């Protein structure tokens, strides 16, 4: 480190840019930083020295020489802090503790029932994360907490906007405000599909198709994230992408929805809607396979419908076909106005097989403006085990290392308990 720098000062945007270039592996020597940033040697040395003094960068081994004095490589100190990442689902809550390089250090999954309300649910999250940190022998406060939430979130990424009847108490609930009673670290909340869509985009070819895309999850409920120009389209109040509660059935055939409306897409295409109709068919004796499953277990699940379809049970096959067809019709309305290049389908129903995607695409083509619909790709995206918490951790790193004058990384680096240099 240069002997000139002996005290820390608040970093400017160029210091954060230097840190991010090293963090991303795009420039890992002082020479490379000079070339990429256009800064002179003194300016680069000064900002590198500040980052080393803050404990976020470290000198590493010497790089191979291309003539002249060899340059030492710089290493981003991912060990310097921890991120607590949470992915809240309707049936399970996945949690992970990662380092600043997104490496998962420990994980935990617990059953969830969002009907118990936000305080009880978040208490489970808080206690589970504390227990996991203790198991890892690392009780320090994290640098940040990010919660992926299964519903709309306001533009400030603080409050849940869901008014679903099966999630009482969550409407306008201030999740970071609740955590503030237990920790002073930054807490961000984001819709789980917005997090996932951003992660899918970051790991996809940066082409025109992926620049404007939909990611639709069809499981017990239905949700959608929309990316425009590679950025999440949130809408004015954070409710963009609410395809599950777009009305697709009217009149006497419109069934009541958990949102309080009737005829929503979820009533005919989501897992809970399929289970409702499958149960009715089983009780009426219309399906021997589902009747047997109902008699054995006392209730049906969406997995029962999927297994029934795999066994060619006519009722189960018809329900899955209806789900895919109605989803395609609803997507056609969104696609005609938004004009995406790619529609990714994920969740337990798209996981069934290629015919689900094919049915969605066929219905989308039939109901869309043909000039745009014929070129849209409908693809399956299987969700990896850690993908939800990994996406949550990615948002934390994006916010902590944002290249502006907030420099949250510097605040956390200079106030959090240190670790030994690895």
Automatic annotation (TrEMBL):
Pfam families xrefs: ROK
Family note: Belongs to the ROK (NagC/XylR) family.
Protein's name in the database: ROK family protein
Native species: Amycolatopsis acidicola
